[in-house]
Design a protein that fits this description.
174 residues, alpha+beta, seven-stranded antiparallel sheet, 3 helices, elongated, coiled coil, Split_barrel_FMN-bd, Pyridoxine 5'-phosphate oxidase superfamily flavin-nucleotide-binding protein, Pyridox_Oxase_N
């Protein structure tokens, strides 16, 4: 997810949350980003602002690593009917994913990057998504399974030794 800031007709900033699955923002080349625009609340404020004045800022926050990035640029909307190949390209979530976007994509927002700024992480509180949490928990689950197996082995060994002791003849008292 990221926050998209555009410029209203009155010159004021307008900020909107943009979200999608991991990998939905695409790097087209070293100066161009693109992301699919999904059906939303049907207000089209950002889309209208971009049509009128394409200046935007994309504000990305990576909570687990406490990093943030501001990307300044000029955006344009490419409607689905105007470039079906670009729409299909946006469906691909990248080499680290076997998934694709199946939702309706109304348009693609293409941003010609003018500048970037990575700034201080001091006040970003770390947060993790479900996949990252599950990945960490899986390490503990594996440890628990290993320890349970060791406990089962040791319990069986104790039972075997107890059985062996019970079968031994008792030594007479001196």
């Amino acid at each position: 997810m990221f926050f998209l800031s555009s410029v209203t007709g009155a010159g004021w900033p307008y900020v909107q949350h943009k979200g999608g699955p991991r990998g939905f923002v695409h790097v087209l080349d070293d100066r161009t980003l693109a992301f699919p625009d999904f059906p939303g609340n049907q207000q089209y404020v950002s889309a209208g602002n971009i049509d009128r004045d394409g200046r935007v800022c994309l504000f990305f926050v990576d909570f687990p690593t406490r990093r943030r990035l501001k990307v300044f640029g000029v955006a344009r909307a490419v409607e689905a009917d105007d470039d079906p190949d670009l729409i299909e390209r946006m469906r691909d979530l990248g080499p680290r994913s076997d998934r694709e976007i199946r939702a309706t994509i109304e348009r693609v927002i293409v941003v010609d990057v003018a500048a970037v700024d990575a700034n201080c992480s001091k006040h970003i509180k770390p947060r993790w998504d479900r996949d990252a949490v599950e990945e960490r928990i899986d390490l503990y689950r594996a440890d628990i399974e290993k320890l349970r197996a060791e406990i089962d082995e040791l319990t069986a060994e104790v039972e075997r030794l107890n059985d062996e002791l019970e079968r031994r003849p008792m030594a007479p008292d001196n």
